[in-house]
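ok here's MFS transporter, seq below lol
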Amino acid sequence: MAIALAAVMLPISVTGPGVALADMSGALNASAASTQWVLNAYNVAFTAFMLAAGSAADLFGRRRLFRSGTAVFALASLVAGTAPTILLVDLARFVQGMGAAAVLTSGSALLAHTFSGAARARAFGIFGASIGFGLAMGPFVSGLLVGVASWHAVFLVNVVLGAVVLVLARTLPESKNPGARRIDLPGVVTFTLALMLLALGFVEGPSQGWGGIVTLGSFAGAALFLALFVVVELRVAEPMFDLSLLRRPTFVAIIWQPVSIVFAFAALLVYLPPYFQGAGGAGSTMSGAMLLPLTLPVFVLPLFTGTLVRLLSVRMLLAVGPAVLAVALLLMTFTDPVSSRTGLYAALLLAGVGIGLAFGVMDNAAVSVVPAERSGMASGMFNTLRVAGETIGVACVGGLLLTSTRQQLSADDGAMADDVVQGRLGSVRASGGEDLVDRAVQGLQHGWGVVYVVLACVALAGAVAIFTMVRDRDLDQSSTAQEG
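and the structure came out like this:
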């Protein structure tokens, strides 16, 4: 129960701020770049500390890390919800992401260690459904909270949820990896710096220029620290990213598979609400409700994992999911939140189906193709790449959306791209009237068209890679367990 509730809590922290961005940026007088760090700070920390959290769970105890991570997560949520400046919100979100990494990784490892066979499949089915429920209801609940209270409530609700999780977690069984001895600190440092510099490049690219010193320097630094990370992992006695597991082709395919899905999914959850609020004229509550066609299938389909596996097999579910998502994204290029809202809902529903098909089997498949004593490591590697896909997707799409929108607008109107992307059309209207608003919305719609096509290409590439790399015989144990 504690792990399931935590799996609901974490996605809300990703999707909730997306609904609140317009109100938050206005209340704190924040720029587009600083507002993006409300999202990126959490995602970078979540991703960067995932591997270290997996190693720490094996070393110190999975229940202990689960409870500690929950406490850090709740306290950071309290700071973010009461912060008077955008800088403090960004810093609190970074700490919140560290806590989330500990919660997710140790929670997955606890399930893998506690259950086996058919019971493990059912446990991970509930785990996936809980994540799906958080994703499904997060935008809607956050929209209600913003509408009834304010943007502060989006963060403060996690304080309450975290307290409940801490109480329930007292009954969880403790487990460790007897062979674990220490955490790979050099790996943590190099990986964290690589990810932060990569996100910085995408965030600053639109304002500094993609060929500017800051942008190119950020990308070069990211490449350098990523190379250093690989060197460290090859030489350290107990790496947090065990490169020997990459000798298993099926495991490689599975841990990369989420990237093809969450790259688009996270970006849509974060940036569509401001699009609906600005260009679509929806309120915060309505903008959250408009995402339900996308998010509800992600909650519902994992509940039918056993039936889906019998119909399509694990391998096909992993491949078909991103393929369906790619088709849906291409269909979205013909829609907008005003003149073709019905078509938009249909495309969002199809995208949700594609994502939901894969969500129910991803976690179990990742830990089922490695020995049980390596479950913490495998879970850390899998979730690191899943959240890395979210992090890079949110940062990349934010930069791409701003750049594409600015390119469509004239030189004189380029400064208003920040406002229209964040859904703040009131500022645009005050400076130039309805004609300027119309031009801004047209520029934004062009930007979204570019984003949809890029995301579709990423999803399609992932589908092809999974279909060709995954070996059915390596998934027999996972598939048999789920069918039970």
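fwiw Residues 477-484 have pLDDT under 50 and may be disordered. kinda neat tbh
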